[in-house]
């Protein structure tokens, strides 16, 4: 046995020498040498590459992977923390947060992954402590006989408490406080990423699963390494923590790695074929995409403007700071169909979240449930929808304070959580700022105004009554869309669709549903949203010209220009989104035109018409039924482009634009 330990120590030394571990060890020793603090225990982190060490010595490699706590002692009797760089990609090393049984007794390394849904504040724990015998004549009343160090899964009372006794004379032991070494500890709750499917608000009757949150401990250099709402891969040792009568299974984390979602690198053959068929025009591909989109929920050809806006918002989702966001607010007198359409659409993204009315949209604070009394920040719909869509349902169902908070978040893309120190055992109050990287969707029932005795006639375009929504909130929502029940010639197919689906929910009612399936749209959106697009100089000039001209013509005597600075951001976001949806990388004037027509339509709903007179339904002025109707739409959009250039020429500040009509 002694010979085996000696052999393992020699192998460990060779490995440390080859991997640069000895250099790091010397550097850490210097840090302790230079410190003026007394340490009961010196703590060293050793990075272990399992494949390298197994190649050097299979027995030691196996021992480290399966008995990490005992293996640490091979590296001498100091506080050693072994950190594997990775684990073998085998099922026996994966710990599922939703599978049963959960093996927390093995005390070996496992790999797991999940989303951080609650974050505790960083508190202190005891890394190591020195105890002395209280009997002066006992040899153990001095020296370093009783050193206690933290082990995975141990509570604070396992390391330091006042009922330890001397093994030699049975006298009580007392801690020498000068030698106590403290470290940082953070408790995080993570949950299996499958939970995102449950939060879409769309249930597949065939799949039933139970998922619960799971506790992980981040210590020392890993504290604050996780952000709430992010998806992580972790390596750690499972343990069971006892708190009174309650036992909690948890993982002591050794390493944390952020999981980046990879979009598919392809689009379906049917979409490629459609793209080649429509290559003669920059407008046709996206028009057909919108026309046949969500044919499982609404008939092709209905709600085209709204469906195009939904697709544009879906491709403008990413997890970067200062991204181009595109929020949608729909005013409708047909809330049932709109709700179904929006609910269907969020299922196309991995992070499409349907906000449940019973919970909070933004993060909240509660007491940590592990008995520490410290604060824990709970995630919420907006944070879980990071890089996706947070669909919050009917806007009029929220109280004034929630709407004010929503407005503040839409303006800054940040939310602040206040933690009162007195309540959570801290000396000072804390404020934690969390970024909110998601698009928000909501709707308002146009008919609800009739309950306030407002005449229906007010709901003409440009005179719409939106008194139910605070004006400032209306301004920060990127796009306002009025989606009325389809006109007479279209309402009949919609009624037939609803009745047929009620009788047979699984029925494929249209051929296009088989050509462009939900899965095809999922892959298409994941591909398109990851495209990196740039503005051409022509597109930039057109955006600037329209924005400056609109600021001049959209004015009132008391507030100056009714066009806010955020309109410029929305224009750029819409233009980029249309480019992505067209599977191009350069924003053209044609993309900007669609963006301007959508924005101008939104502004007309809020503030009435301007000198740039647009049709009531400017992006889809007539039904798309055949090649001829697509050609007709192209001619109409080219005329719109001409009118736009005339508008900029008349009201813009002399910006030179190319008015060449080819």
Q: Which keywords apply here?
A:
single chain; 662 residues; alpha/beta; five-stranded parallel sheet
| N- and C-termini, Cα separation | 89 Å
Stretches where pLDDT is under 50 for at least 5 consecutive residues are: 450-463
> What is the number of helical segments per DSSP (H or I, 4+ residues)?
21
Shape assignment? elongated
Give the SSE layout:
Blueprint lengths: L1 H18 L1 H14 L8 E6 L1 H7 L1 H9 L1 H4 L7 E6 L25 E11 L2 E11 L12 E4 L6 H4 L13 E3 L5 E11 L3 H4 L15 E6 L11 E13 L2 E13 L10 H9 L6 H9 L11 H12 L12 E5 L2 H12 L5 E3 L9 E4 L7 E4 L2 H4 L4 E6 L5 H13 L1 E6 L10 E6 L3 E7 L25 H6 L2 E5 L4 H16 L7 H5 L2 H12 L4 E2 L1 H17 L1 E2 L3 E2 L4 H16 L4 E2 L1 H19 L19 H25 L11
Parallel strand pairs: 1-2, 8-10, 11-18, 11-19, 12-15, 15-18, 20-23
Antiparallel strand pairs: 3-7, 3-9, 3-14, 4-5, 4-6, 4-7, 7-8, 9-10, 13-14, 16-17, 21-22
General description of the model:
It is a single chain. This protein has 662 residues and is of the alpha/beta class. 35% of the residues lie in helices and 21% in strands. The chain has 21 helices and 23 strands. A five-stranded mixed β-barrel has the order 3-7-8-10-9. Strands 12-15-18-11-19 form a five-stranded parallel sheet. It has a two-stranded parallel ribbon with strand order 1-2. β13 and β14 form a beta hairpin. α3 runs antiparallel to α4 and α18 packs across α21. The longest helix is centred in the last third of the chain and has 25 residues. The N and C termini lie far apart (89 Å). About 2% of the residues have low confidence. It comes from Mycteria americana. One of its GO terms (molecular function) is DNA binding. Plays an important role in meiotic recombination and associated DNA double-strand break repair. This is Minichromosome maintenance domain-containing protein 2.
């Amino acid at each position: 046995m002694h010979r085996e330990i000696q052999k393992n120590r020699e192998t460990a030394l060779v490995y440390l020498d080859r991997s640069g571990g000895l250099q790091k060890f010397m550097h850490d020793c210097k840090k302790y040498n230079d410190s003026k603090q007394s340490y009961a225990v010196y703590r060293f982190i050793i990075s272990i590459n399992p494949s390298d060490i197994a190649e050097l010595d299979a027995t030691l490699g196996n021992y480290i992977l399966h008995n990490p706590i005992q293996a640490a002692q091979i590296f001498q009797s100091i506080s050693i923390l072994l950190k594997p760089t990775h684990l073998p990609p085998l099922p026996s090393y994966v710990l599922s947060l939703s599978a049963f049984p959960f093996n927390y007794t093995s005390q070996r390394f496992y790999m797991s992954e999940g989303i951080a849904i609650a974050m505790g504040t960083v508190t202190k724990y005891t890394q190591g402590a020195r105890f002395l015998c209280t009997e002066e004549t006992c040899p153990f009343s001095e020296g370093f006989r009783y050193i206690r160090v933290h082990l995975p899964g141990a509570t604070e009372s396992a390391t330091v408490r006042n009922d330890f006794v001397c093994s030699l004379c049975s006298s009580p032991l007392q801690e020498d406080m000068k030698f106590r070494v403290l470290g940082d500890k953070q408790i995080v709750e993570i949950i299996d990423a499958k939970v995102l499917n449950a939060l879409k608000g769309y249930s597949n009757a065939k799949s039933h699963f139970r998922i619960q949150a799971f506790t992980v401990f981040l210590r020392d250099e890993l504290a604050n390494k996780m952000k709430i709402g992010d998806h992580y891969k972790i390596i750690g040792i499972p343990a069971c923590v006892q708190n009174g009568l309650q036992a909690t299974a948890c993982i002591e984390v050794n390493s944390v790695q952020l999981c980046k979602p990879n979009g598919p690198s392809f689009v379906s053959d049917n979409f490629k074929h459609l793209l080649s068929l429509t290559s003669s025009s920059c407008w046709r591909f996206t028009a057909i995409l919108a026309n046949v989109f969500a044919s499982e929920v609404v008939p092709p050809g209905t709600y085209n403007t709204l469906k195009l806006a939904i697709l544009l918002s879906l491709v403008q989702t990413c997890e970067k700071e200062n991204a181009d966001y595109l929020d949608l607010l729909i005013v409708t007198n047909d809330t049932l169909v709109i709700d179904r359409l929006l609910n269907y659409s969020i299922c196309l993204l991995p992070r499409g979240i349907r906000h449940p009315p019973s919970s909070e949209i933004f993060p909240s604070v509660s007491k940590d449930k592990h008995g520490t009394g410290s604060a824990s920040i709970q995630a919420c719909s907006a944070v879980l929808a990071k890089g996706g869509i947070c669909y919050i349902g009917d806007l009029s169902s929220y109280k004034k304070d929630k709407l004010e908070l929503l407005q503040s978040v839409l303006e800054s893309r940040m939310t602040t959580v206040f933690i009162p120190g007195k309540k959570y055992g801290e000396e000072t109050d804390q404020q934690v700022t969390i970024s909110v990287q998601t698009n928000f969707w909501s709707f308002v029932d146009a008919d609800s105004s009739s309950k306030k005795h407002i005449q229906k006639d007010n709901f003409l375009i440009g005179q719409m009554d939106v008194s139910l929504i605070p004006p400032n909130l209306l301004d920060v929502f990127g796009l306002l869309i009025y989606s009325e029940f389809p006109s007479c010639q279209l309402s009949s197919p919609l009624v037939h669709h609803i009745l047929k689906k009620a009788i047979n929910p699984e029925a494929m009612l249209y051929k296009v549903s088989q050509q462009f399936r939900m899965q095809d749209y999922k892959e298409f959106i994941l591909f398109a949203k990851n495209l990196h697009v740039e503005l051409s100089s022509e597109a930039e000039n057109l955006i600037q010209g329209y924005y400056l001209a609109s600021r001049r013509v959209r004015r009132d005597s008391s507030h100056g220009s009714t066009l806010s600075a955020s309109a410029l951001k929305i224009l750029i976001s819409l233009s980029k989104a249309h480019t992505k949806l067209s599977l191009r990388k350069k924003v053209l004037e044609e993309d900007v035109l669609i963006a301007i027509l959508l924005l101008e339509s939104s502004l007309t709903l809020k503030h009435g018409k301007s000198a740039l007179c647009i049709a009531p339904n400017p992006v889809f002025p007539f039904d798309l039924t055949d090649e001829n109707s697509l050609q007709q739409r192209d001619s109409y959009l080219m005329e719109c482009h001409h009118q736009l250039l005339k508008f900029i020429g008349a009201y813009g500040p002399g910006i030179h634009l190319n008015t060449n009509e080819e």
